[in-house]
């Protein structure tokens, strides 16, 4: 916005000086110059009159009644009141939501990681046994079976499959395997009989059987 | 700075020193000295009397606690006005309010005991200020009502001097375009400066 005044730069200068001349903070030479200009410029003179009136209006007391004595009484009561822990409370209240949210997030993460670790640990237990590990303890109902040295692997697998058995250990030094039923049931007597009846099986006996 | 301003500032500094030592009488004296000016200043931000009292008391609560840390970089009045201004903005913000933008929404224009002349002047002023933003009203109040310099207004509002100068300029343009008409001057006069 530009100010196009009747007398150009002089009016612009007068515009700048007016508030400070009214405050009586403008240097004397500026005030003197302004008075001289106002005497010659009707527009600036009207503007200055309006500014003077504005200053008078703004110098009036507040038009909203605010009770000074009551306010002072309240202030003194506030000073006498036991000092609340405003600083920590404000710190907590201003950052509390964020702090609590972060703490909750960390706690949830810790719980989640812990639960995941337990699950992975249990799921990932190896299904094999290394030679350095101690021999498995045969489960109850396991059978000790010694196949003939010339028995074909396919025949051995088919026999076990037909009888519902699987190898859990072996062969040991004498070529014996420990087999158990695939399911939870104990091996049937017929399975033991069929093993003994097979001409490629040298020995079939229950491991639990006492001599 | 004229002599009386200097005297007032010297008095205020002494009061602050006494307050820093825990002298409540000094607090009371400073409170009474500033209550009227602060109330008028804050009435340019809010028209609620209860809120003005609360902001004034927040301001003096801080002044009481910080009296010992006043370094004297500015006049005491500038320092207190700055605290009041920030307390005012904070109080309005905490309530989700904005500084009153419609200055016409006033709870009664002026006390009933106003002389007719004052009432007329208040109405004239009120109709002019309602065209200004809250920031512009504050600048006009501080320059014309309180008598602050641009540097002091910048310190109070924590704004660059250039920003304050621009606010004052635009406020004056708006007032000049509105107030002469209300005062009965001819619109032709306004064109001289537009």
List its traits.
heterodimer, A: 211 residues, alpha+beta, 4-stranded antiparallel beta sheet, 7 helices, rod-shaped, disordered N terminus, B: 194 residues, mainly alpha, Rna Polymerase Sigma Factor, Chain: A, Arc Repressor Mutant, subunit A, 2 domains, 9 helices, 0% strand, globular, disordered C terminus
Please provide a written account of the structure.
- The complex is a heterodimer of chains A (211) and B (194).
- Chain A starts with 8 loop residues before the first helix and ends in a 5-residue tail after the last strand.
- The longest helix of chain A has 38 residues, at 86-123.
- Chain A contains 7 helices and 4 strands; from the N terminus they run H-H-H-H-H-E-H-E-E-H-E.
- Among the domains of chain A are: 9-58, no CATH class; 143-206.
- The model of chain A is unreliable at 1-6 and 87-94 (pLDDT under 50).
- Chain A has a 4-stranded antiparallel β-sheet, with helices on one face.
- Chain A has 211 residues and is α+β, with helices and mostly antiparallel strands.
- The model of chain B is unreliable at 104-112 and 186-194 (pLDDT under 50).
- Helix content of chain B is 70%, strand content 0%.
- Chain B has 2 domains: 1-99, Rna Polymerase Sigma Factor, Chain: A (Orthogonal Bundle); 112-194, Winged helix-like DNA-binding domain superfamily/Winged helix DNA-binding domain (Arc Repressor Mutant, subunit A, Orthogonal Bundle), CATH 1.10.10.10.
- Chain B has 194 residues and is mostly helical.
- Chain B is globular and about 50 Å long.
- Chain B is built from 9 helices and no strands.
- Classes of the chains: A alpha+beta (211), B mainly alpha (194).
